[in-house]
Amino acid sequence: MQDWLTMTACDLGRGIGMGQIDPVELTETYLSAIDAHPHRDRIYARVTHDRARAEALAAQERAKLGLRRSLLDGVPISWKDLFDTAGVGTEAGSALLEGRVPESDAQVVRNATAMGTVCLGKTHMSELAFSGLGLNPVTATPPCVNDEDAVPGGSSSGAGASVAWGLAAGGVGSDTGGSVRIPSAWNDLVGLKTTAGRVSLEGVVPLCLKFDTVGPLARSVEDAAHMLAVLEGTAPADLRGASLIGRRFADLQNVAKDDLREAPAKAYDEALVRLKEAGAEIVPLDVPELNEAMSLSGVLYTTEAYGLWRDVIEANPEAMYPEILERFRMGKAYSGPDYVAAWSKLTACRQAWDAATAGFDAVLAPTAPILPPNLDRLMNDHDYYVTENLLALRNTRIGNLMGLAALTLPTGTPGCGLMMLGYPGSEEALLRLGSAAESALT
To answer: How far is residue 5's CA from residue 166's CA, in Å, rounded to a whole number?
Structure first.
């Protein structure tokens, strides 16, 4: 049974389907592991024992009757603490929302429950999802699986930690600037950023609605494909026969490789060699307009975030971690015309990106240019916090700004991910590419 804690979600699902794994025993194994874990309260904000047991019992009955609803029917997963769960606190890592208990599930939670997944609980996150580090002195900072003295990446910090530490078979997070991909990369997981507008945001605590997306943190590309399917209540991507032979990738040069540190650089280069050996063609690419797009991040993100949260924040600003409060308040500096002009410029940058990348199956880049920073130093060194936070999200933000689907894969070097940037709405094609790349990288 201990092996169950490290198996992929899909392998667990296949075990249930073959009658080799009982969903109730599986869920009890996970709940016991969570409750006994020394980092339990740093990873889970709330563990939903009663809900998990009820859902597992229902999955057990369906399995006996041959009425399973999906491959993941009966598989236990975790949810970031910004997805509404009926009767269970959803506080988005913030004291501003302390005691907030929704009356109904978010749409994606309803979908996944209808497809048979088991809800283990709600995982800790960066405050109101506005940081890529995963540091949260207000509630809790989960540990990174590769370095317990380092942050795990955010804002879906507990989601990544729950899977990496064997306390969930998969995690559901959100990605506004990299919040699924950074904790996935730093904890050696697969993370899928979906195209904005694809997966429902109903019942999801917002940060920037134009950039907010929902996606899985998983142990394999296959798991990510099936988790996306249950979030939408649809059939998963067909990954059979995926190959890199004849595939053409762009190796993004500008922005993505600026200030790239030694370990991520070496891991990325080695990963590209393996992709080429598997049959891929990889071509260096510069997209000059990307530099302008990155310069628009401040006005685009902080204006919307502060606009959404201003009244709540200013009613009780002392309840916030000062670094996050400062980041929100940056939105004060911009006017309505500034915001409209920035979106107009971003639209032109997106058109230039589309033209430059049209001849490629996907664009490649290191997921993060840095390794997970030290937690204590982040807490005590403001300049270090600012530098590391901006660098953590720099590469992943490309996908959000350009409106793309994106996938991060482990490279085999701890804490270093390979990011694949696909076209808007191309999740299924991107997952096929990711499946083939995963085989080449492992």
So the answer is: 5
pLDDT at 1: 67
Strands 190-193 and 214-218: antiparallel
- Are residues 26 and 56 in contact, defined by beta-carbon separation less than 8 angstroms? yes
Size (the chain), residues? 442
pLDDT value at position 2? 67
What is the arrangement of strands in the sheet containing 214-218, beginning at the earlier edge strand? 44-47, 118-123, 76-80, 171-174, 214-218, 190-193, 406-410, 417-421, 362-366, 248-252, 281-285
Asked whether the beta carbons of 160 and 183 are under 8 A apart, the reply is yes
Q: Is 24 exposed, middle or buried (0-12, 13-18, 19+ CB in 10 A)?
A: buried
In the prediction, which pLDDT does 145 show?
A: 98
Look up tokens 């990369």; give the residue: 185
Low-confidence stretches of the chain (pLDDT beneath 50): none
Report the SS3 class of residue 160.
helix
> What per-residue string of b and e applies to 242-268 under the rule 16 or more CB within 10 Å gives b?
bebeebebbbbeebbbeebeeebeebb
Alpha-carbon gap, residue 329 to 210, rounded angstroms: 19
Catalytic residue list: 80, 155, 179
**Bridge partner residues of 172 (DSSP):** 79, 216
CA–centroid distance for 124 within its chain: 13
Tens-place pLDDT, residues 144-155: 999 999 999 999
Torsions phi, psi for 119 (to 5 deg): -85, 110
Tell me the Cα Rg of the chain.
20
Q: Using CA atoms, how far apart are residues 209 and 4, in angstroms rounded to an integer?
A: 37
> CA angle, 419 as apex, 185 and 120 as ends, to 5°?
40
Residue 179 to residue 160: CA distance in whole angstroms: 10
The DSSP line for 193-261 is EPPTTTS--TTB--S-TTT--EEEEESSHHHHHHHHHHHHTSPPP--TT---TT-EEEEE-TTTTTT--
